[in-house]
Amino acid sequence: MTSVVLPRLRFKNFPSAFTILFIITLLAVACTWMIPAGAYSKLTYSAESGMLSMATPSGDVTTLAATQEELDKLGVNIKIDQFTGGIIRKPIAVPDTYERVIPVHKGIGDVTKSMVEGTIEGADVIVFILVLGGMIGVVNATGAFNSGLIALSKKSKGREFGLIFSVCFVMALGGTTCGLEEEAVAFYPILVPIFLSLGYDSIVCVGAIFMAGSMGSTFSTINPFSVVIASNAAGIPFTAGIEFRVIGLIVGFAALSAYMYWYCKKVKADPSFSYTYADHEEFEARYMSDVDMNHELPFTPRRKLILALFILAFPLMIWGVSVGGWWFPTMAASFLAITIVIMIISGLSEKTLVESFTKGASELVGVSLIIGLARGVNLVLEQGMISDTILFAASDFVSGMEGSVFIVAQMLVFALLGFIVPSSSGLAVLSMPIMAPLADTVGIPREIVVSAYNWGQYAMLYLTPTGLVLATLQMLGMSYNKWLKFVWPMVVFVLSFGALMLVIQVAMA
């Protein structure tokens, strides 16, 4: 009898970001067959009609007057001006309206379909990243990066960690005030070569940018995309409980700085200690191929001006997001405008500039696709009608617990929900109308639930593949298992310290 040998998928190394997301998409499809389908009624506001509309799980739509009285009748404890003022734009889940619906089982064909749809949905972020890549390619072609990097490395001699600390501080500040997350990918191309020239590795790059920004977002103080919108959805002012978030931010940043200092000192003393030492040659070739530290290019006034324009794009972006109401299309347009100015003053030929732009953009295609594929996972869960079921089960799980146990359990529930909905604003409007009223039943203030949401959700976003992590790792060519080895102490810290802070708040309430 002839034996049949079936092909087996083998991984010589840890799976890449693309493979991880493909596997997670398959699991999401399987979950639509195992988890009952269900949904809450959703409430939205139309600025055109000036009316509220409530869509039931069965598809019926009821139009309501945009008044506080109507919200109170529905048990939605949110001020009406949060809707009419445009602060809450996404559909709000209406409490006590969950019901089972006809299952929407996903199949193998939906795996690739969700990947395509997720990429289309993420087009605004993808265009921003491609424009950023093109901008970097143009600046590289002018030699401004090379000459500026050499000048900076000489001035930073002996004070290397001071630069790391400064970047961590700025990123944490951006995270706590304006939720600097997806926008942070713009900082890698300018900061990674600097960190490498100072003798550090790829882990330090991700730690100083992504992890520091995430630590700031974890302990958000006035971040409009998490704590503000979550407080609004919980029906309380965002200033409630801010003193505990400020204390958390100080302690969290201190813990991050100490951890970064320990790791940086170890890598500086012995480069082989690096968690990514096996890949350091490939990583350095990716970011330092155009930089020759032994061949000093003159740092001419023209190159200084080009570098200044390049750097100017980033504080301009932060201002636009936090004050100007910008989103990715506007950010991409501002980066493109500055790129055109750089092209005009560069002195390079039109052909060289166009080729440099397209080459730079092409190097970030992989990162762009990762963002689209991650969104595809969430589309499967939403279209499969199981996201609300998971939220309903989570709220039922914590309901009726004793105060301290209840709030710690809520933090862990938000950590789980952070994987299902890896969007701070999306999770806030979906979960807060359901979870915040549960605090009333155990006699604790709702602002403590907002803290539990912040600390639980972001502890998960440090490592969830459906968030920004895999796009970041793809940009730096780092495998997921090596990042986990570095980040897990910070995840344990956030959950442990967060639980302690929550219990203290309950005790003081």
Automatic annotation (TrEMBL):
InterPro entries named in the record: C4_dicarb_anaerob_car-like, DASS-Related_Transporters
Membrane topology note: Multi-pass membrane protein
Keywords assigned by UniProt, alphabetized: Cell membrane, Membrane, Transmembrane, Transmembrane helix
Subcellular location(s) per record: Cell membrane
Primary residence: membrane
One GO CC term on file: plasma membrane
A Pfam family annotated for this UniProt entry: DcuC
Chain segments annotated as transmembrane: 16-35, 125-149, 161-180, 186-210, 222-240, 246-264, 305-321, 327-348, 360-381, 405-438, 459-480, 486-508
The protein's name: C4-dicarboxylate ABC transporter
Native source species: Vibrio nereis
